Amino acid sequence: xxxxxxxxxxxxxxxxxxxxxxxxxxxxxxxxxxxxxxxxxxxxxxxxxxxxxxxxxxxxxxxxxxxxxxxxxxxxxxxxxxxxxxxxxxxxxxxxxxxxxxxxxxxxxxxxxxxxxxxxxxxxxxxxxxxxxxxxxxxxxxxx
Amino acid sequence: xxxxxxxxxxxxxxxxxxxxxxxxxxxxxxxxxxxxxxxxxxxxxxxxxxxxxxxxxxxxxxxxxxxxxxxxxxxxxxxxxxxxxxxxxxxxxxxxxxxxxxxxxxxxxxxxxxxxxxxxxxxxxxxxxx
Lengths: 144, 130
What we know:
The structure holds two protein chains of two kinds.
Chain A: H1 11-16, E1 18-21, E2 32-33, E3 44-48, E4 52-58, E5 67-72, E6 75-82, E7 91-95, E8 100-107, E9 112-122, E10 125-132
Antiparallel strand pairs in A: 1-2, 1-8, 3-4, 4-10, 5-6, 6-8, 9-10
Chain B: E1 4-6, H1 12-17, E2 22-23, E3 27-32, E4 35-41, E5 50-55, E6 58-64, E7 74-78, E8 85-92, E9 102-106, E10 109-115
Parallel strand pairs in B: 2-8
Antiparallel strand pairs in B: 1-8, 3-4, 4-10, 5-6, 6-8, 9-10
C-alpha cells in the first residue's frame, strides 16, 4: 500500500503523501494529511524522480552537526536545534525568526533504499537524496 | 525611540520590476548604543546571490536563492517555491551610518551591522566634584 504514496501519478500523490509533524506543540498526534495540516518549521519540499526521492529543507543558521537525519522503517526524520545568536544582544526591535528544536518526518516510498541516503547542508538548505531500489530485471537462465 | 523603523510595504519601484513571487524574509533586529544588528533568514542564497543597497535612507536586501529539486523531479509536496526571491526594505533613521554597514552571510543567515553616527551615540558626562 505504501508504494502508492509515491506512485507515478501526479495528483494522487498530493492526497496520499503523508507526513507527521511533531513540533514543540505536538499539535498532530498521528500522520496527518498534508493538505489539511498547516506546514511546520522548517518548510519541506519533496520531489521524486524515477530513481530517487529528493527532499529539500529550508533550515538556515544551523551547524551541520546540529542536524540529525534518521531513517526508521520507511520514515525519514529530520531533527535539529537552532540556538539563539550570540551577537543578538540589546534592545529587541524585531523577533521573527524561528529558534529552538524542530522535528519533521517524511514518509518514504516502499522502494526507498535506506543504505543509499545522502544528506548535504549548504547555504542554510538541507538536501536529502534517497535512492530507490532498482526493480529486479528479468534474467534468462541458460538451459544446459 | 528607535531610529530604525521597519518598512512593512515593499517600495513601489520593486513591485513591477520583478514578476517572480517574492518572499519577505524573517528578521531579528537588535539595537544597542553603538548601532543596530539585523539578522535575516535567507536560506538557499549564496554569497553572489545577495544584494544589499542603500538608496537615500532606504536599505533593501535582495536575495536570489538557488535551491530546488533537480530538473527531472516531479514535485509531490511543496511548502516553499522553487528558487525563491527574498526582498525586504528598511528605513534607516538619520542617526544610522549607512556608509559603514558590515554584512556577512553564513549558512543562509545574513548578519548586518549598521553603526550609529558618532554624534548619535550616548555619552557619559563625567560629573566633576565641586
